[in-house]
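Narrative summary of target 7.
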Amino acid sequence: MAVQFRLAALGHTMEKGRVLEWFVAEGGTIKEGEPLLSVETDKAAVDVDAPISGVLLRIVGQVDEEYEVGATLAWIGEEGEEVPDTPELTAVATAAAKTISAEKRVTPVARRLAERHGIDADAIDGTGPDGRVTKEDVQRAIDAGPAATGAAAPGGNRFPLTGIQHTAAERLSASWRETPLVTEGIEVDFSACLAARAEKAAAWQEAHDIEPSINDIVLKATAETLKSHMRLNAAYADGAIEQFQEINLGVAVDSEQGLIVPVVHGADRLNIGEIAKATRELGSKAREGKLGLADLEGGTFTVTNLGGFGVDWFTPVLNPPQCAILGVGRVRRVPVVVDDEITVRDIATLVLSFDHRVVDGAPCARFLADLKALIENPSTWLQ
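Modeled conformation, tokenized:
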């Protein structure tokens, strides 16, 4: 008997999902546990596995359409089995007829990737089901160079926000309107950290098979400092302050989908090598579009670093509902006065933005002072 495959909640806050791509064509054989389709939630694009083995008798969930949790996305059964005629299927048949009339179909993920690179996706030969242009097809065209991409002519383009970008835009806009945002900054001498990093590089490589970056060191120092400043490890919600017990650090990552903030869970319990491995893995998954909901949920405090882009300092915007975010600027060689003498040191500016409803300026200033002291004296904690 044919069974309905419904859209399940892929996270605690998920109410809707957008179908991005079917990995199996209608009529194809599927195996339990293998990827069946990709769904975009308000937080990430997630591959959904087939719940049972059988034949994909009918696809109901149309690509680039949004559905409520619980909606029927497909029917699965035995080969040749009839699918009950329902109003959902009638609507799907009408939509499919309109879609098939188009010369070429391009998956939403592929079209967005093409738009970011100024490529005419409709000019690319598709290798997906029924000749659909997939993300892989677009990437091959990008790799092949301008002659193969059909680059767009000069002129204005309009790029619709993805579900993730739309949700982020709404939340950040609401945060900016509603949150009494305050920002404090402090200059920190990274000279001792850089020296310790150079000294321990070989040992770290041998022990952890990785060399931690300056950002990894900042993350570790932040997690350690938060242990004694838990008022910043909190959120404002429904007229109350929720102070978190876990220290889960969000790490801002630039990706094809825009800014994504995966989370290093239990950062205060990890050594520097474990933090470095976690950030590399999360960064790779973010850029490849392979982050799962577990990688994105549960953040309690965020660190964002624009130093790699040559930025000295900036005002980071809160990642709601968290009450604080730390911005890290580039480490630069500058002359400073130490013990009444001018010397050259490695200085970076750290900027803390915070929700004044949750925490006041003085506790935040103490947090920055303690973080500065920890970074400038790495011998006591950087192992």
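The domain at 164-380 is CATH 3.30.559.10 (Chloramphenicol Acetyltransferase).
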